[in-house]
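ping. complex inputs:
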Amino acid sequence: MNSDYRMSVVVRTITRLTYGLIIVFGFYVIMHGHLTPGGGFQGGAVVSSAFALLLVAFGSAGLKGRVNRHWFQTLEEVGAIFFLALGLFGIGTAFFFNLFANNPGVPFGQSVPFGPNSGAVSTAGTLPWMNWAVGLKVLTGLTSVVIAMLIGGRKEERE
Amino acid sequence: MSLGNLPFIASAMLVILGIYTLLFKRNLVKLVVGGSLIETGVNLFLVTFGYRTAGVAPIYTYAPAAKRMVLPTPQALTLTSIVIGMATTALLLSFAIHVYRHHGTLDARKVKELKG
Amino acid sequence: MTALVPHVPALLIAVPLLGAFLAPIVGKLGRTTRNGFVALVLLVTAALAALLAVRFLGSNGSPILYVMGGPDGFAVPLPSGMATPIRIMFEIDAMNVFMVLITALVTLCAGLFSFRYLRDRSGGDLFYALFLLLTTAILGLEVTGDLFNFFVFLEITSIAACGLIGFQAWQKRAPEAAYKVMTMYTLAGIFVLLAIGLLYAEHGGLNMAYLASAIRGSVVDQVALTFLFVGLGMKAAAVPLHMWAPDAYGEAPAPVSAVLVVNSQASLYGLFRVMFTIYGGVANAVLLGWLIVALALVTIFVGVTVALLQNDLKRLIAYGALSQIGYMLLGVGVALVTIPTKPDFGFVALQGGIFHMINDAACIGLLFLTAGAAIRAAGTRDLNRMGGLAHTMRLTSVLFIVGALALAGIPPFNGFASKFLIYEGSFQLNPFLAVVAVLSSILLLAVFLKAFQAVFLGPRPEGASVGGEAPLGMLVPMVVLAAVVIGFGLFPGFFVERIVTPAARALWYGRDAYIHAVLGGF
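pong. complex structure:
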């Protein structure tokens, strides 16, 4: 594959139109992990697939303005440390204790309604925060893996 | 209409196809795909165990009232297993890339430096 | 600070995990800061392990139970009044504490050794992140009380260990070894996952104590036991599933090889926990025992004889390590066969097998570290091209011979104490077993003497690089491990009474206490 091979116009246009929507959908899946199927890993994988789509459609030039590798590594570590810190917040009672649940003053603190309901977002305590931490780590981690494999392979091609 | 034993048969077929790939293919990347097939078969096996006849998804948001729900624990186990499988596959593929860089080939029979 | 003491089991996992995540960030501040940070994390982990061990020294304390995220005990009370054992918990009895002590000791020494060993290579941040992650996962394997949590930690050890094996990716052999090892580890994990799925479908719960009380010995349970046996035996490198072990131990950097031995022993601990505690009342002990004895004999024999053919120093030590796993299996297998009929002799064999775990970890760790220092000084791993290192590396050669003699079972080192217990127990069962074990020890001594002569004695070959004595940063951990080897050898009774006998007793007689701590009066 030489460097002037490009994907067709259809692919490039559709990618430009939809990658933002995929990222927003991924964030929705992360956000509502405690109410609907989804959560940290699933949403992070969806967002990372948007970046992979950019890579496939535009090559490594597609990510130049949008993704900064050092930022991604720092965000990955921030996500991991945030997850562990959330586990340690409740260490007074137990490790991974759900400190914020059933505590109406705090964000995500309301009690969960019992039985089938229409879903209240602001519930379940520590869980949405942990979903965000895991989602951040997964999206940055998977994207870094995909970029490393692509750029690692490319360099070999050039040598 | 009931599924009968169909999910178990499908899971067994996936595992058998994965084992066949691991035994008879020589390309390193194909071996990784074979391992991934076996993991998929085992994950399907785990999810099928939680199924209860005429059950719905174990989620309370907009759930149909008064219906039996499928067990949620095997779904959590399967999700963890999928994540582990993804990490394993990523690591195996990175090492396959390194092996290709050193040896110039992806044929498992030619990459035989470690013997004895 | 004292308010945190009840949380020691969770902190044992949380501290190295936090260290693993913070290591790349701290590494940006400089190499010395990062080394100091990693040393601090390893020391704190060792201190926590010692704190945990104080409770079980020599006495029969009841198992410590730590429930994750639950102030109200392990059972979540539902409004209908039913309580299901659904929370993940850590359950620690004397056997867990024994394994945690081994892990803390070896990872501390290997970590301190690696500061100097990896000084002139890049990528150190990621090395320490993976190293601390491996430490966390091995410790988690050893303290958990939930079978699926065990599987998750098992897979984390696979991934971290393979990342470290392939760490020197600029060489030709390391990525190939890492690929092969990762494939074998993945297969082992799949077997374990299948077994866990079968057990969950049969009994509806995954807590180890709950399963121990609910197991009935049906066909599904026996199939699950077979899968667990195969999967965990693969990870512990029992023959005939040992093909990954020489590649893994041989290609990894020297401190990592020492920690990989502890990894195999942790999987062996998992096998013991499954056999003795979960299937304790149900499995056919005599049949299982004879099977393990057969596997152990094959492992011992194959390990030692193939070691004779090796030209590569680290692969030679790797095959030696392989045969020692056979000794541990021999001790436990003999115990399983004889305890129903002759409990005293069987218990001695069990103590020998378990004592050999810590002796083997210390001796093999010492051997790998000294081999790493020797290889670094000589610049090559081929026995035919090394030589004459004893002129400049006096202390390193003495430490190598201490480790080799201890592993071969020569008094007054610790290997003699544990191997003598194993010989005694297996002689009672069948003299042939003891004869094979003793002959293999002698062969192992011959193998290591050949290696010692090739590496350290004799004239230095022309064109070889000149290296001085191993630097102080590498000598101190080696001396610590040698002190453990000599100390355990000179006072074996003291240590056996304090840490080995409670562990053996917890494994064989402690099943009811283990179940009772979780299920109470159920």
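Chain B touches chain A through 16 residues (CB under 8 Å).
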